[in-house]
């Protein structure tokens, strides 16, 4: 028998079903796949508890695209002391595809949606069989971007964590088998998927970290093919460039956005439902509040969030629950509105 499970669900069975724990005593092989990603998601304690519940006489295989300190710590606990480390990449190997051109653009955040549209139009004009992935910071920003681009008559699909699994699978298969299509997505498409012939990857907003940038970029240039990656950041997100300074990424000149194109994007932003705009604001605020380089200055964060709200057509920022604001360290911060 083979059991495939997420750490949280597996631990739930171990802790609440005694018969299940007894059956696990016959386990011969444990596989931890995407170990670095599991730890990114906060599953370290779950993995430690699971390992303590399994027989010590077993074979364990741990797979990881990167080997940061957290992965090394967990490997020392779940693997035997005399385990074998197999490096399929090799010392000195490049971390990003050699045939992928990497560029970054520094653009005021309030123009990011306009710039994504500008970059997509330019790429579509240049590539007959274009196939583009646009990564957004959160699920609700993804949905906002999708609705806007769809209204601008682009052939676009969306995948993010708020969509049902059956829907995500259907869209993923459609994108895999198609050309002349744009996929707007959150980090659910960063790993574990293989989309052939992707010609461009746009990352709109700063990624959570270096590994995320590399994995997102890796959706193009697969199997030795060429591709292009563009990182779109605001001036206050330039700190991230220090994390990828050793990668072959170049600053690109910022394309001009003519007034007619800007007006079209503004008109499409207006048609997005206010409930989605409010959800996008809350998600945006939560995302950047989780990034230490930005959240340490709460007043600046609140101001940036207000400006983001204006850029998506909101006259004033939506309110936060008092408890939420307190947990985020934003209670009493100018520009943060509390729900009464």
UniProtKB/TrEMBL annotation:
Keywords: ATP-binding, Helicase, Hydrolase, Nucleotide-binding, RNA-binding. GO terms for molecular function: ATP binding; hydrolase activity; RNA binding; RNA helicase activity. It comes from the Eukaryota. Residues 1-85 form the Helicase ATP-binding domain. CDD domains: SF2_C_DEAD. Residues 99-269 form the Helicase C-terminal domain. It catalyses: ATP + H2O = ADP + phosphate + H(+). SMART domains: HELICc. The keyword Transmembrane helix does not apply. Its EC number is 3.6.4.13. RNA helicase. Belongs to the DEAD box helicase family. The Q motif is unique to and characteristic of the DEAD box family of RNA helicases and controls ATP binding and hydrolysis. This is ATP-dependent RNA helicase. It comes from Aegilops tauschii subsp. strangulata.
């Amino acid at each position: 028998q083979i059991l495939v499970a997420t750490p949280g669900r597996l631990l739930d069975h171990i802790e609440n079903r005694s018969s299940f724990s007894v059956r696990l005593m016959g386990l011969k092989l444990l596989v931890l796949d995407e170990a670095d990603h599991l730890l990114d998601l906060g599953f370290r304690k779950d993995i430690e508890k699971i390992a303590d519940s399994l027989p010590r006489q077993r074979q364990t295989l741990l797979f990881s695209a990167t080997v940061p300190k957290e992965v090394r710590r967990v490997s020392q606990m779940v693997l035997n002391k005399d385990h074998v480390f197999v490096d399929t990449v090799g010392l000195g190997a490049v971390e990003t595809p050699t045939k992928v051109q990497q560029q970054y653009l520094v653009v005021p955040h309030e123009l990011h949606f306009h710039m994504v549209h500008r970059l997509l139009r330019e790429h579509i004009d240049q590539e007959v069989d274009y196939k583009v992935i646009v990564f957004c910071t959160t699920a609700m920003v993804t949905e906002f971007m999708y609705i806007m681009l769809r209204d601008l008559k682009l052939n676009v699909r969306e995948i993010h964590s708020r969509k049902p699994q059956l829907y995500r699978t259907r869209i993923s298969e459609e994108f895999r088998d198609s050309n002349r299509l744009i996929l707007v997505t959150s980090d659910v498409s960063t790993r574990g998927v293989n989309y052939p012939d992707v010609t461009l990857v746009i990352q709109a907003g700063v990624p959570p970290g270096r590994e995320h940038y590399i994995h997102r970029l890796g959706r193009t240039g697969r199997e030795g093919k060429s591709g292009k990656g563009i990182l779109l950041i605001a001036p206050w997100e330039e700190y991230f460039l220090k994390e990828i300074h050793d990668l072959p990424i170049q600053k690109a000149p910022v394309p001009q956005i003519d007034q007619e194109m800007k007006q079209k994007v503004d008109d499409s932003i207006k048609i997005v439902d206010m409930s989605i705009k409010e959800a996008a604001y809350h998600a945006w605020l939560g995302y950047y509040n989780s990034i230490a380089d930005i959240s340490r200055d709460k007043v600046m964060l609140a101001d940036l969030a207000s400006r983001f709200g204006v850029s998506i057509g909101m006259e004033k920022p939506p309110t936060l629950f008092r408890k939420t604001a307190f947990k985020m360290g934003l209670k009493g911060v100018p520009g943060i509105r509390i729900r009464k």
